[in-house]
Amino acid sequence: MQPNITCSPGSPSAPARAQASHVLPIRVYYEDTDAGGVVYYANYLKFCERGRTEWLRALGVGQQALLEESGIAFMVRSLQADYRGSARLDDTLQIVSRIGTLRRASIQFEQQALRDGELLFSSSVIVACVDVNRHKPTAIPAPLYALLESQA
Q1: Closest by alpha carbon to 18, among 139, 146, 140, 116?
Q2: Domain assignments of the chain as residue spans, ordered by start
Q3: What whole-number distance in Å separates Cα of residue 91 and Cα of residue 146?
Q4: For 95-106, what is each residue's pLDDT tens digit?
Q5: How many degrees, rounded to 5, is the angle at CA 54 between CA 50 and CA 57?
Q6: In angstroms, how far is CA 78 from the centroid of its own chain?
Q7: What is the pLDDT of residues 49-102, one digit of tens each?
Q8: Which superfamily, per CATH, for 20-149?
Q9: CA distance 149 to 19
């Protein structure tokens, strides 16, 4: 079964309005920090996960719907991370996500965490499209691939 990823023209999530990159604002809460009030390093990865999820949602693609309708999920295969600065309690960050490389069964995302334009964190994350029933990589469904390709 193919996932339902069509968007009605003129809707906020219609592909024509989607941008090649997505920006998700994130507020740093106490729970995101260590004892010194600095964002704990692993939480940048959580912020980036939210950025990828919200980017797909803005395109009209729900990951739960993909799982239920097609039996596929995106799973992190590899990542590279570069920590350049420190975010602190109450900072507002911008998580910028864009496609670096699109392949038949994987997507490489380039992501950054910025504070007022200052680069604090960057990452390159490869997510694989996986058939969750077989636990094997599988091709991204054609309609979804076409939508992603329009963003690459």
Answers
A1: 146
A2: 20-149
A3: 36
A4: 999 999 999 999
A5: 145
A6: 14
A7: 999 999 999 999 999 999 999 999 999 999 999 999 999 999 999 999 999 999
A8: Hotdog Thioesterase (3.10.129.10)
A9: 12
Can you tell me the distance from the alpha carbon of 66 to that of 60, in angstroms, rounded to the nearest whole number? 11
Secondary structure string (H, E, C) spanning 33-85? ECCCCEECHHHHHHHHHHHHHHHHHHCCCCHHHHHHHHCEEEEEEEEEEEECC
CA distances from 87 to 36, 96, 98 (A): 11, 15, 21
pLDDT average, residue stretch 126-152: 95
Active site residue 34: yes
Q: How far apart, in whole angstroms, are the C-alpha atoms of residue 139 and residue 43?
A: 30
Among 34, 82, 90, 116, the active-site one is: 34
Residue 32 corresponds to which tokens in the numbers above? Answer: 């995101």
For residue 124, the one-letter residue type is S
